[in-house]
Amino acid sequence: LDAVRAVEPRIAQAIADELDAQRGSLKLIASENYASPATLLAMGNWLSDKYAEGTVGRRFYAGCQQVDTVESIAAEHARELFGASHAYVQPHSGIDANLVAFWAVLSQRVESPALRRAQVRQVNDLSEQDWATLRRELGDQRMLGMALDAGGHLTHGFRPNISGKMFDQRSYGTDPATGLLDYDALRATAREFRPLILVGGYSAYPRRVNFAIMREIADEVGATLLVDMAHFAGLVAGKVLTGDFDPVQHAHIVTTTTHKTLRGPRGGMVLCQDELAEHVDRGCPMVLGGPLPHVMAAKAVALAEARTESFRDYAQRVVDNATALAEGLLRRGARLVTGGTDNHLVLVDVSAHGLTGRQAEAALLDSGIVTNRNSIPQDPNGAWYTSGVRVGTPALTTRGLGAAEMDQIAELMITVLTSTRPAADASGGASKAKYALDGAVAEKVRAQAADL
Ligand code: PLP
């Protein structure tokens, strides 16, 4: 850090403080992890200085031999690890990977001169008029994705994301009685709506998804099945999700992040069958800026790590730990969406404790337990305050914690949740944000959390 400190000490301090914060608290955010030193080091180097628009062997810049090497190795690891025909490792994030995939499907399946013209520009550069022409020619193509409050992601056709502008979207949800994905209802909606793209995958659904059934539904209605496995890619890589639950075996196209359960650098990736490969490879410059060669190098390292026996063991322990955490919480009276988990995350319905997700998230943070608030199905508190807290085990499993520690964490979480009360807002009414938690309780839990 000395080199950074010599130039901008405040940044060196922020980096050191982040390390302290991560060491001194329990990182239970389901989408976070700890990348290995090899992965981190592969990112912090001179590859970062290189421009390399295009694809391997077809670059718009000279001198890209090393970038070609890096990109081919990352793609080779991705193909072999996931059993995919084609891998595109350039996307800078999960959102970018989805955008690449959406445009790839549109350009494969829809005839549109405006789309062809747009191919040479970045989506963000398109004017409102360009969009209007595109929408007219694309004929309001349809996307069917999982509802946000059922655990879906913004990029699956929702308004705050550009996918909500690109597509006429409808959602499928979960059974109100069980909280489980309702495949019959999904099939009925797909038959009626006939989407171009059926999106599978989630950010906050604590169960496995049967992608064999989803492919059957997609085929029946002529949709392309796109699965966003951003959250559970590590469980697919680690062969915990296999057969019907492995999206790569069933979907036409699969997108992912590389930094969640997969434990790589921040970034994204697209896997697809051969028919879509040429469309996916146009991701840059269609919707992506120049590739990040240093991040592709780190992806290659992380993917190589994910091909080891020890990563398989890790992936299984992530799920075992989530199960232990869920059981510990249930035993102490918590209410969990779907009644448990069979992946890496648990969704706690904190309305059972008289709290909003926002109050619970803040009280847990005061106590050294880092989670994030999350909507639950039919959430009365909306997406800002929410009624749930999402917890996940990928990061703590990397730190080596096991089932016994998960039980202790369940105890600490319940102590905080049962000791927190909603407080009144300025006008004396019940606040959805303010809360009261005894400082001594928070202090005690924080000390115990730091010891784990
Ligand atoms: N897709 C899913 C299912 C996600 O959960 C997320 C991240 O939360 C993303 C995409 C977006 O990933 P990124 O933040 O890397 O753009």
From TrEMBL:
Transmembrane segments: none annotated. It catalyses: (6R)-5,10-methylene-5,6,7,8-tetrahydrofolate + glycine + H2O = (6S)-5,6,7,8-tetrahydrofolate + L-serine. Belongs to the SHMT family. The keyword Cytoplasm applies. Homodimer. CDD domains: SHMT. (6S)-5,6,7,8-tetrahydrofolate binds at residues 148, 152-154, 275. The gene is glyA. Its EC number is 2.1.2.1. This is Serine hydroxymethyltransferase. The record marks 259 as: Plays an important role in substrate specificity. It is found in: Cytoplasm. Its cofactor is pyridoxal 5'-phosphate. Keywords: Amino-acid biosynthesis, Cytoplasm, One-carbon metabolism, Pyridoxal phosphate, Transferase.
